[in-house]
Specification:
The structure holds 2 protein chains of 2 kinds. In chain A, 0% of the residues lie in helices and 53% in strands. By secondary structure, chain A is mainly beta. In chain A, the strands form 3 sheets. In chain A, strands 2, 5, 6, 10, 11 and 12 form a 6-stranded mixed sheet that branches. Chain A has a 4-stranded antiparallel sheet with strand order 3-9-8-7, with no helix packed on it. A two-stranded antiparallel ribbon of chain A has the order 1-4. The chains are: A mainly beta, B mainly beta. At the A-B interface, β5 of A face β5, β9 and β10 of B.
Chain lengths: 113, 112
């Protein structure tokens, strides 16, 4: 069975602070994919990134960056210079050999002006 | 580009009533799935389909039925609604199982 843990239920930061959202996963598969999704207050789910298990390179996209470490089974997400519009629930997810996409319980990020 | 379209966005029904949530996608994706989102539990897959005519159970299938007669549509039916089915439902599509999911806007269902 696979599992995704997002231990931070809620995080609150002040605008322009950097914030890291943690994601720890468990799987017995050697090939798997990791995802991050954003759910703003409007409720839709927005795909942010997909990473396969063979690619441990960190990725940066504007103010967003992702740190994938197989040694610690973590796929953390950092927002640099946070903005109020970053306020949302962020979900980490894992897809393994059974192709079941398992979501973490989500982290509610609130960015205060 | 419509992407994944879900209807209705909101609905209230009584225990024992039936209803169908509609899902349509126009991206020619083979994989379609239904998820429910409950507070503190993330999203859990209810049913999924990898192609027309093929459906399978997800993590929480009890009380729900699906069908897939074509590529575009994937309706979710509640035959006899229960209060435990009060949730937000998302339909999602992907070019393949395991690929990034494209979600509909969600359907908030309340069962009284």
């Amino acid at each position: 069975a696979q599992k995704v843990t997002q231990a931070q239920t809620e995080i609150s930061v002040v605008e322009k602070e950097d914030v890291t959202l943690d994601c720890v996963y468990e799987t017995r598969d050697t090939t798997y994919y990791l995802f991050w999704y954003k759910q703003p207050p409007s409720g839709e789910l927005v795909f942010l990134i997909r990473r396969n298990s063979f690619d441990e390179q960190n990725e940066i996209s504007g103010r967003y960056s992702w740190n994938f470490q197989k040694s610690t089974s973590s796929f953390n997400f950092t927002i640099t210079a946070s903005q109020v519009v970053d306020s949302a629930v962020y979900f980490c997810a894992l897809s393994g050999s059974a192709r079941q996409l398992t979501f973490g319980s989500g982290t509610q990020l609130t960015v205060l002006p | 580009n419509a992407g994944v379209t879900q209807t209705p966005k909101f609905h209230i029904l009584k225990t024992g009533q039936s209803m169908t949530l509609q899902c349509a996608q126009d991206m020619n994706h083979g994989y379609l799935s239904w998820y429910r989102q409950d507070p503190g539990m993330g999203l859990r897959r209810i049913h999924y389909s990898v192609a027309a005519g093929i459906t399978d159970k997800g993590e929480v299938p009890d009380g729900y039925n699906v069908s897939r007669s074509n590529t575009e549509d994937f309706p979710l039916r509640l035959e006899s609604a229960a209060p435990s089915q009060t949730s937000v439902y998302f339909c999602a599509s992907s070019y393949s199982m395991g690929g990034e999911l494209f979600f509909g806007e969600g359907s908030r269902l309340t069962v009284l």
